[in-house]
């Protein structure tokens, strides 16, 4: 029997489906079996693949293709893994986009004083790695009269506010034309009907193309497995939002969809002591966000790029 050029020993490749394996092993075997140029493109040198990933996880279908029964099994597996890894009992849900709703966010820059409470709330709500000062929000300290984000500082440690400064929180802008979605080679990120751009952490291959494409520096990469004390794990988790993310995957702000799709406010808004944050349904004429859009002079960041953000800024 003639050997395949990518499998000269003719050893069977299918048994990897019948035993525990790592995603790295499975990728290697699949590449040897297929020998496809497309596969080579997908397996980028930029990938960071965690070890000891189960075959079930590796073979999991794309989130959009999962049936309700499939999802229930996936959520149960992830809940058990969280219990084993973090010693915490959690519940993972799958709140769907509310028909007819389009979420939007606005920041009153006249009220934001750079206190950073929003960042702290984001860190706790979204089960961020405690080993680093991680948050989906960056608060830029800006010189009055300038809108040059590149000159803003996120490392200030003096008392705030400073008289000659203003403060501008920046996070995912939930663009209607998101470049991060366009560049993803495996469709691990997409925009949902309510305007929220999400990531399927189990489908992401960690190539970081989306991070490079985002003009707002709003994407984060998990360089290591998150470390969170059991008593600090937020047990109210969403599959596409704040569940503990695997090492080697991308993540981003998701408007706390596990909260907002249930009628609650984002954690950062609840934590803001100055009332600078406004959130709501832009399709609801009586919403707070609609009032801002109709009655304030609002602007978006980097409008010239055509990303069409659903995140707005205004001054009183």
From TrEMBL:
Keyword Ribonucleoprotein (UniProt): no
Keyword presence, Iron-sulfur: yes
Top-level taxonomic group: Bacteria
Residues of the 4Fe-4S ferredoxin-type domain: 195-224
GO molecular function, one term: metal ion binding
Keywords assigned: 4Fe-4S, Iron, Iron-sulfur, Metal-binding
Protein name: Tetrathionate reductase electron transport protein
Alphabetized Pfam families for the sequence: Fer4_11
InterPro entries, sorted: 4Fe4S_Fe-S-bd, 4Fe4S_Fe_S_CS, ET_IronSulfur_Cluster-Binding, TAT_signal
Organism this protein belongs to: Fuerstiella marisgermanici
């Amino acid at each position: 029997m003639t050997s395949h050029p990518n499998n000269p020993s003719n050893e069977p490749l299918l048994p990897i489906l019948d035993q525990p394996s790592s995603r790295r092993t499975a990728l290697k075997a699949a590449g040897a079996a297929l020998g496809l140029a497309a596969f080579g493109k997908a397996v980028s040198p930029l990938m960071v693949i965690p070890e000891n990933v189960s075959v079930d996880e590796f073979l999991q279908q794309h989130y959009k293709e999962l049936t309700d029964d499939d999802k229930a099994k996936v959520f149960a597996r992830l809940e058990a893994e969280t219990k084993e890894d973090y010693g915490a009992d959690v519940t993972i849900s799958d709140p769907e986009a509310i028909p007819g709703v389009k979420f939007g966010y606005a920041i009153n820059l006249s009220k934001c004083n750079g206190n950073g409470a929003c960042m702290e709330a984001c860190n706790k709500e979204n089960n961020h790695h405690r080993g680093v000062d991680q948050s989906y929000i960056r608060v830029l300290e800006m010189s009055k009269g300038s809108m040059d984000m590149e000159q803003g500082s996120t490392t200030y440690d003096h008392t705030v506010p400073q008289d000659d400064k203003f403060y501008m929180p920046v996070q995912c802008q939930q663009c209607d034309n998101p470049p991060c979605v366009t560049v993803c080679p495996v469709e691990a990120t997409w925009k949902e009907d309510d305007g929220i751009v999400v990531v399927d952490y189990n489908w992401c291959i960690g190539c970081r193309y989306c991070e490079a494409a985002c003009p707002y520096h709003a994407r984060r990469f998990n360089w290591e497995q998150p470390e969170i004390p059991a008593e600090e794990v937020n047990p109210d988790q969403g599959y596409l939002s704040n569940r503990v993310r695997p090492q080697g995957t991308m993540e981003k702000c998701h408007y706390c969809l596990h909260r907002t799709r249930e009628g609650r406010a984002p954690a950062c808004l609840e934590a803001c002591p100055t009332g600078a944050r406004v959130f709501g349904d832009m399709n609801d004429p009586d919403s707070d966000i609609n009032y801002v859009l109709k009655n304030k002079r609002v602007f978006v960041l980097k409008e010239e790029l055509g990303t069409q953000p659903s995140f707005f800024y205004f001054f009183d």
